Amino acid sequence: MKTVVVGLSGGVDSSVAAYLLKEQGYNVIGLFMKNWHDDSVTISDDCPWLDDSNDAMLVAEKLNIPFQTVDLSVEYKDKIVDYMFNEYKNGRTPNPDILCNREIKFDVFLKIALSLGADYVATGHYCRKRTVEGSSNPEIYKLLSGADSNKDQSYFLCQLSQAQLSKTLFPIGELTKPEVRAIAAKLNLVTADKKDSQGLCFIGKVRLPDFLQQQLQPKKGQIIEIPQTHESYKVKQPAFDSIYDELVFRSKKTNYSITDGKVVGTHQGAHYFTKGQRKGLAVGGTVNPLFVIDTDVKDNIIYTGQGKNHPGLYKSVLLVLPSEVHWVRPDLAIRVGESLKVMSRIRYRQHLESAFLYATLDGLYVAFDSPQSAITEGQFVAWYLGDELVGSGVIS
């Protein structure tokens, strides 16, 4: 009998995942990850991890499976939290949920599970795994989007490797959320009607700006509004000698200065804001809402533009540096000089957009057919062939 360690989070998805695996004949062990308990970075008296741990324990008791808690808070601080603070400090916007999966759930947690004698780990992610037909020694694994398009979480797993996939199961990937809740309700699980968790993967019920202020000190600066008539938006695309020259041109970042616009307000720290952000600016009196189009953490300036269609929000080409390119399917990786037609997204729940990948010595250029809003440094771009996520990278 194969043994599976399920990451019981205290939510309905992992609860049903554990049940399904037991029904399939696996020897199932429930393991709750205690990810954060640093009192120096606490906003409220809420203790979501305690509530979640208790719910996970009750589910394990109901399913009659062994259960224990493992404290991964040290690893979280080292691999996720410190990295996240540093990225925001440098004006970039990391995705802690993707890092959490790559560095914690499918690395540290996986190693703990294997040390307990497990053959696999399993989570409640809405995605699927398949083996490439004809592949053997070693087998090649596909990471597919979840059957429930409204809940597909493949994007959050875009940094997984073949080694990690080989030891991972996704039991609810073929189900929809309503089907998962129906199973939990039928079993009378305490998590059946529990709301999905919100906020950061490691601190729960905490607003990100509040969390950042624990480590990144407030610093008053100016909010500048850039008009839609800014000179950089009028530059005509020149004739290019090569596709490479066009990619470089279209991926260039617009550099703004205070003299390019007018002061419309103040903020408490450019490192608290990210491209595309609307909330938190506290600036009124404009015809259309203001959106952040760029941040300058060095001079502590936020550049904004009116309306969600402001040209400063849009760009059609992004670059992933060579060291940041990751192929879930290394056998499909393209070499310098090659290109690949894909579907791609730059954020969770975004509709997949048609794009081309171009491998160059600079790195991997992702050229979208249509301009994308708020392409943000530090975030992840993921690319798909059909419903298979084949690679990803950090946007530079």
Structure summary:
The protein is an alpha/beta fold. The chain contains eight helices and 18 strands.
Keywords:
five-stranded parallel beta sheet; 8 helices; globular; 24% helix; Elongation Factor Tu (Ef-tu), domain 3; nine-stranded antiparallel beta sheet; 396 residues; Rossmann fold; 18 strands; alpha/beta
Number of domains as seen in the coordinates:
3
Q: Fill in the CATH topology of the largest domain.
A: Rossmann fold
Mean pLDDT: 92
Shape: globular
> So, the CATH homologous superfamily of the largest domain?
HUPs
| Count of β-strands | 18
Ends apart, CA distance between termini: 46 Å
What proportion of the residues form beta strands (DSSP E)? Answer: 25-35%
In the predicted model, the low-confidence regions spanning at least 5 consecutive residues are: none
Task: Tell me roughly what share of residues is in helical segments.
Answer: 10-25%
Structural account:
- With 396 residues, this protein is α/β, with parallel strands linked by helices.
- The protein has three domains: 210 residues, HUPs (Rossmann fold, 3-Layer(aba) Sandwich), CATH 3.40.50; 93 residues, no CATH class; 81 residues, Elongation Factor Tu (Ef-tu), domain 3.
- Helices cover 24% and strands 27% of the residues.
- It is built from eight helices and 18 strands.
- Strands 5, 6, 12, 13, 14, 15, 16, 17 and 18 form a nine-stranded antiparallel beta sheet that branches. The protein has a five-stranded parallel beta sheet with strand order 3-2-1-4-7, with helices on both faces.
- Strand 15 and strand 16 form a beta hairpin.
- It is globular.
- The chain starts with a strand and ends with a strand.
- 40% of the residues are buried.
- The mean pLDDT is 92.
